[in-house]
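Progress note, sequence design subtask.
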């Protein structure tokens, strides 16, 4: 029995017979004293008997009278009304977790979404449908509240598994796998908690006290305990010498075979290696200790995965296994590089659920990014702020850049207050400030700032499009005018400028943005606010990835195509009218200043007709083509090349080739429209 467990009979431990101390009798007086004592005892017995008989008679009479007197009194009094039936006690919550913990869904786009009371039933259904449930606890700074949550979750799962006729097992990384025999003895009652504690001398003193209630509950309720940690000798050897320092037998048991993967990690959507993201080490990312730490992590993951797979294959096929381990070993689930990813090769992804306990930081997930877990589970003792990003990390980035919050643009300050500016976005902003021209643009123009924060390659794409536009326009004008090219340079410039303006907007409008200012800050009227709110709820292009707080459906994406077409049609209509008016003004000026240079009267294209045709061309053909280029080719495929393969040059080449093909195809369509509508 553990020291803190109460005895089943608390009074038994306190009872001690009290015997009065008497001096020892001398041998000479022992016989006479014994005779006197016998005579006194006989006299006392006769007196007690004589007094006992009348006492019993009196007591019997009194006991017979009491019920009669009580019944007579009841007859004289009116019968009291029966007490009202006690109100039925309110049905307790099936799980009772409302006051103990809070849940957040980490799989949604944007910030994690709180799971309401009505939706918690679905969470437990999801857990019960799983074969393995991972509880990721804090590693750098262990939190005792994690153990409270672990006990709470295990209690509820045990009750539900009992109702469903399923077995429940608990696997603990805290116990090295070579302590499995000691855990079995503890479960069988052959050793108690004090004996088991002797095998955890490598723990911090308070750690045993935190785990003890969970261990006691499992022992008392028949929940199998499984040690899945790596033996200490193996861990210390790998941390000091690497996997090569292990013996042949140790390497066979605890190190993954060569070529099995999961050694170097892979790059996530945001461009950082998952090893870097999940690593709890604060050492240099390129130092020797970092490499050894990565090897130690791989050994831990492999050891746990092997033990878990063995338990799943040999245990109850319908049973559930709860794994308590460090958060870094289970982050990103089956799509990460930890234990769930190793097991996912032999188990369906939906059969594994990852829960992070009391995570210090909540990340904002964008479309296409891997969710860090299925659920974030907080103890009721933990404060929860809407600020999803760690302010300490924000302060670290600002201190490293030598910047103050007051010097940032207003929208970024507002975003930091609302918790929607991640350290990565802030770092991108400081990186853009290193270039003088870009620094001027992002500080003076909010539109450039929003686009460059969402896509740092925006200026490259704009330069590619403008270069292609100006070059093809000049070549087309030269082919059209031949020897009159320099004489009619004003017409050439007019058409070239119009094409340049139009191409600027074909890149500008469908480009993805990150807007950090709320609508209320714009100070516009109600009608304008309604329009801004409607347009702000749509993506910039049909293929744009979800951003903070946005998860667009198919209707919104289709609407973005229509709205984008209307915008480009408006740009085409206005620019065509401007170019037509400018051409007519130049033609009139030539007739006045140099009549001899004017050829015979040629029919002029109607301005309104030309504007309408050009507007329709931009709103349909150009809009669809640039939606695909901006959203699918550059935003998704190009970012994939940069993030996963670190190939920005290849992404720029892809953008350049796609825009050249688009320009050629667009020119052919435009010429067809001119010939078809004859203007």
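Output:
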């Amino acid at each position: 029995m553990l020291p803190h467990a109460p005895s089943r009979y608390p009074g038994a431990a306190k009872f001690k017979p009290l015997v009065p101390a008497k001096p020892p009798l001398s041998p000479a007086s022992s016989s006479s004293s014994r005779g006197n004592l016998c005579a006194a005892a006989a006299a006392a017995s006769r007196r007690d008997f004589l007094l006992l008989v009348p006492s019993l008679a009196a007591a019997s009479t009194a006991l017979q009278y009491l019920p009669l007197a009580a019944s007579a009194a009841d007859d004289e009094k009116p019968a009291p009304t029966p007490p009202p039936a006690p109100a039925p006690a309110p049905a307790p919550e099936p799980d009772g977790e409302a006051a103990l913990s809070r849940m957040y869904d980490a799989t949604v786009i944007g910030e994690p979404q709180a799971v309401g009371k009505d939706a918690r039933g679905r969470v437990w259904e999801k857990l019960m449908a799983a074969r393995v449930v991972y509880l990721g606890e804090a590693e750098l700074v262990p939190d005792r509240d994690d153990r409270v949550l672990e006990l709470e979750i295990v209690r509820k799962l045990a009750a539900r598994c009992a109702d469903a006729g399923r077995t429940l097992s608990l696997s603990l990384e805290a116990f090295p796998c070579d302590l499995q025999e000691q855990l079995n003895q503890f479960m069988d009652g052959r050793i108690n908690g004090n004996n088991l504690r002797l095998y955890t001398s490598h723990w911090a003193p308070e750690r045993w006290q935190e785990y003890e209630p969970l261990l006691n509950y499992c022992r008392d309720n028949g929940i199998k305990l499984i040690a899945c940690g790596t033996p200490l000798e193996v861990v210390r050897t790998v941390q000091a010498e690497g996997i090569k320092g292990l013996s042949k037998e140790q390497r066979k048991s605890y190190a993954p075979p060569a070529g099995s993967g999961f050694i170097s990690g892979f790059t996530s959507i945001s461009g950082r290696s998952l090893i870097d993201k999940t690593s709890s080490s604060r050492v240099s990312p390129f130092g020797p200790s970092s490499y050894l730490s990565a090897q130690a992590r791989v050994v831990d993951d492999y050891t746990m995965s092997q033990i878990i797979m063995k338990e799943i294959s040999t245990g109850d096929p319908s049973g559930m296994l709860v794994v308590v381990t460090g958060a870094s070993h289970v982050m990103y689930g089956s799509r990460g590089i930890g234990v769930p990813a190793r097991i996912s090769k032999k188990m369906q992804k939906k059969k594994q659920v990852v829960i992070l306990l009391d995570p210090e930081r909540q990340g904002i997930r964008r479309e296409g990014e891997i969710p860090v877990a299925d659920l974030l589970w907080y103890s009721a003792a933990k404060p929860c702020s809407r600020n999803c990003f760690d302010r300490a990390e924000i302060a670290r980035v600002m201190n490293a850049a030598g910047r103050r919050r007051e010097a940032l643009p207003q929208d970024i300050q507002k975003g930091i207050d609302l918790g929607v500016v991640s350290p990565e976005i802030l770092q991108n902003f400081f990186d853009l400030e290193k270039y003088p021209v870009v620094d001027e643009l992002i500080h003076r123009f909010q539109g450039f700032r929003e686009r460059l924060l969402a896509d740092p390659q925006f200026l490259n794409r704009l330069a590619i499009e403008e270069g292609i536009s100006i070059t093809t326009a000049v070549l087309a004008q030269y082919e059209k005018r031949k020897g009159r090219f320099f004489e009619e340079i004003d017409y050439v410039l007019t058409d070239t400028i119009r094409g340049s303006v139009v191409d600027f907007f074909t890149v500008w409008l469908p480009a993805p943005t990150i807007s950090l200012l709320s609508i209320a800050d714009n100070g516009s009227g109600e009608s304008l606010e309604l329009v801004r709110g409607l347009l702000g709820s749509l993506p910039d292009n049909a293929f744009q990835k979800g951003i903070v707080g946005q998860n667009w459906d198919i209707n919104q994406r289709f609407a973005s195509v229509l709205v984008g077409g209307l915008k480009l049609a408006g740009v085409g209509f206005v620019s065509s009218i401007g170019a037509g008016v400018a051409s007519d003004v130049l033609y009139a000026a030539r007739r006045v200043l140099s009549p001899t240079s004017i050829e015979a009267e040629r029919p002029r294209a109607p301005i309104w007709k030309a504007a309408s045709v050009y507007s329709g061309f931009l709103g349909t053909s150009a809009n669809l083509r640039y939606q695909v280029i901006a959203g699918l080719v550059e935003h998704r495929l190009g970012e994939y090349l940069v993030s996963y393969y670190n190939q920005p040059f290849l992404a720029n080449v892809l953008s350049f080739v796609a825009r050249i093909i688009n320009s050629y195809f667009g020119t052919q369509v435009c010429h067809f429209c001119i010939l078809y509508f004859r203007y």
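Residues 450 and 515 are 6 Å apart (CA to CA). Work on this subtask will continue into the next period as scheduled.
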